[in-house]
Amino acid sequence: MAVSRNWVYQAVADDVLPHGRPGVDGPIRFVAAEIDQWLDAQRRRLDAGPRQRRQERRTLTVAGWIIERPLRDGSVVHDIGYRVNGRLVKRKGGATRRAAESSLILALAEIETGAIRGSGASPTPQ
Fold first, then answer.
1. What are the φ and ψ backbone dihedral angles of 110, each rounded to 5 degrees?
2. What is the pTM of this model?
3. Pairwise CA distance, residues 30 & 87, whole Å
4. Given this model, what pLDDT does residue 115 score?
5. Handedness of CA 126, 91, 36, 50 (dihedral sign)
6. Given this model, what pLDDT does residue 125 score?
7. CA angle 13, 95, 43 (to 5 degrees)
8. 64-90 b/e with 16+ CB inside 10 Å = b?
9. In the predicted model, is pLDDT for residue 77 greater than 50?
10. Would the pLDDT of 122 be above 60?
11. Model confidence over 12-67: pLDDT tens digits?
12. Would you tell me how many other CB atoms lie within 10 Å of the CB of residue 109?
């Protein structure tokens, strides 16, 4: 998914990612089909457009986009950007459009769960 291990642990702690854990201190387990379903749901939400997202959560204004940027060596990188309550945030998305889509979906999920609040810079400690 092109995310850090810390993001995964935080997403599990916030119950954002579908997961299982045998016992209280057992290892975190993921089912690939459940992760794929979760990513598809996030993509559908992203594709639904701003009107539906506004209806889902009226107190938070969010918009996101992906921009292809050519590099000097001829390769292309995909950057992501989003607005959170009027603040503009730009980040590197990835070498492929799919990686950038995943990064944007995860950033929007962090915003939705409150991990990113208005500042857009970094997740707030819980």
1. -65, -40
2. 0.43
3. 34
4. 67
5. positive
6. 40
7. 50
8. beeeeeeeeeeeebbbbbbebeeeebe
9. yes
10. no
11. 877 778 888 777 777 888 888 888 888 888 888 777 666 555 555 544 555 688 88
12. 21
Tokens of 35: 């992760």
Q: Which long-range contacts link 53-57 to residues 24+ away (Cβ below 8 Å)? A: 57/112
Q: Which structural domains are found in the chain, ordered by start? A: 5-113 (3.30.160)
Is the Cβ–Cβ distance between 20 and 35 less than 8 Å?
A: no
Cα separation, 34 vs 39, in Å, equals: 9
Residues near 89 by Cβ (< 8 Å), separated by ≥ 6?
Answer: 81, 82, 83, 107, 120, 121
Q: Is 113 exposed, middle or buried (0-12, 13-18, 19+ CB in 10 A)?
A: middle
